[in-house]
Specification:
The complex is a heterodimer of chains A (387) and B (297). With 387 residues, chain A is α/β, with parallel strands linked by helices. Chain A has twelve helices and 14 strands. Chain A folds into two domains: 35-151 and 294-369, Response regulator (Rossmann fold, 3-Layer(aba) Sandwich), CATH 3.40.50.2300; 154-279, Rossmann fold, CATH 3.40.50. Chain A is 45% helix and 17% strand. In chain A, helix 5 packs across helix 6 and helix 11 crosses helix 12 (338-346). Chain A starts with a helix and ends with a strand. Helix content of chain B is 74%, strand content 2%. Chain B has twelve helices and two strands. Chain B has helices at residues 3-35, 42-59, 64-87, 95-117, 142-164, 166-176, 178-183, 188-214, 221-234, 240-260, 266-280, 289-294; strands spanning 133-135, 138-140. In chain B, strands 1-2 form a two-stranded antiparallel sheet. In chain B, helix 2 packs across helix 9. Chain B is globular. Classes of the chains: A alpha/beta (387), B mainly alpha (297). The interface between A and B is large, with 35 and 38 residues.
Amino acid sequence: MTRKTKVATGVVAAIVVALLLVVSFSVWCAALKPYKVGAVFAITGGASWLGEPERNTVKMIEENVNAAGGINGHPLQVIVEDTVGDETKAVTAVKKLIERDKVLAIIGPSRSGTTLAVIPIVQRAKVPLISCAAAEAIVIPVKQWVFKTPQKDSDAVIRIYEYMREHGISKVAIITGTTGFGDQGRKQLKKMAPDYGITIVADETYGPKDTDMTVQLTKIKGTKAQAVINWSIVPAQAIVVKNMRQLGMTIPLFQSHGFGNIKYVQAAGKAAEGIIFPAGRLLAVDTLPNDNPQKEVLSRYKKEYEAKYGESVSTFGGHAWDALHLVILALRAVGPDRAKIRNFIENVKGFVGTGGIFNYSPDDHTGLTKEAFEMLTVKNGKFVVLK
Amino acid sequence: MSLGSQILQYLFTGITVGSIYGMVALGFNIIYNSTGIINLAQGEFVMLGGMIMISLTTTFKLPLPLGFLISVLLVTMIGAAFERLAIHPLKNPSVITLIIITVAGSILFKGGAMFLWGKGTFTLPAFSGEKPIFILGATILPQTLWILGIMGIVVLLLTLFFSFTQAGKAMKACAVNREAANLMGINVKVMVLFSFALSAAIGAVAGIIIAPISLMDYNRGTMLAVKGFCAAVLGGLGSNLGAITAGFIIGIMESLGAGFISSGYKDAIALVVLLVVLFVKPSGILGNKERSQLKKF
């Protein structure tokens, strides 16, 4: 080795060492100041089919954001807490996130009941909360610190009724699950029917653990209903579908966006063909026209999620996707300041998410209109856009 | 749809649902008879039967009869293992301790099932097609006939077992008086093992035959156990014929109530019937009053 090459080697080594130092210093520096975001989901318990995809989604986003260098150089840290779908546990989790972890914003909870339970706490502590639950009571009346990403139940009802009006259906039978979701839907369906010239000729319910709904459907069969609306979020709704076919009923069946899980279609088998329901576009992204503004976001989310977790995406994970991306957007723009994050989100316009295109305003903390729903149907065991 | 065929349809539904309750109630009875306890994990045996069957026939593509046999065998083994590992090691346990152990078992089975199969709902193809049979304007699924038929066979086999076999008679003796049976040389602990295995087997059979109708998920057992327990109590704890009868009564009351009053009150109607019967006849419809006084619980 000549002297020259020795020097060159020395220089290279010095550069490498210096680089290593810089890198480790910046890592060390960044590790000092991560942006902490809290997430409270019903990961276990009866509502786990909501919380699990939500948790998976935020963990995936956290990884992707950090792999791409974080937010303005700061790593993103999502602290996930499990509420088990329980109000008391949700309150404890939110308090812990605010007081001990000092998070900048909170995503979740998954259920409407748990969200309503934690609202007073975030309002008092002045922490932005972006709920992944649907009930309108969360944002009506508007609460300063509370937002939500799922579409409104009433918009789903409007989409169904508009479709019925176009197709000359005026007498409907409703059958709803006796959970919070089903009950809210039942109230909305009954309230809005007169506005669309629709008469409800039968109003039946079933429990989330029921095994047979032929009785309720027999009653419906005895009326002059031109269509049935089944509003529920529990697996038992698949039995309604099967029982209708068993009774030889041929009138069209409409379902709520709570049917938006391909597992329900699999459970109902052939009987599910032709069901019509409003849902976010995520479920039928493959049949969406290419010029749809959401197509790119939806395909990317679906591809990434399914590749990582090996299971189908659900709209519920999509709600968490929207919520966390809103927070990331805000952090990028205004930095780690709770009040500024809140103000930023309130003025977000044209944010393309999985649930729709969000336009928040001081009077509207949902940010979505009825256009966020697309009418879908089941064809050959898959969700497709209804034409 | 005429009123007559509506009523007939309600009855068919009641019978379908009632036979499910009756099957679950049978499982409660067998363990109650030999141990004097209520096995609160009974619903989980039903769930396990259904879930294992679904896995065997849809994932492993086994033919139905083979899948049926293997599922029942596996659940029987799970029931026996549960007894050996959790119930058997206790010396002189009180009834309440045992019941709490079964609660723990129920949570364990449910959690295990959740890990194994996830939280999805699964379905089993019906044994002989899903084409409904029309009778006077009402419909009945072929699967319901399977349920009724298999339930009939199970009841028949149980009756034969308890009347004509040594083991069956020994179990019956334990049911009448455990201490006396012990003194007569019957190994009560072995009988307890038998009873857990037997009731697990019956639970599994119930789970398999109802899966095409009710769908199955890891959480399905609990509510079935509640309804089955109602049937067992209504029929008189320990009486197998009572359990089946009461299952039908509850099922039919539920469906008639839902049909003529309101589907919102369906569960309440069944429970009111239960309360009224117990108020009038605390030992249940076919329960023996004197015998129930001898029991601790």
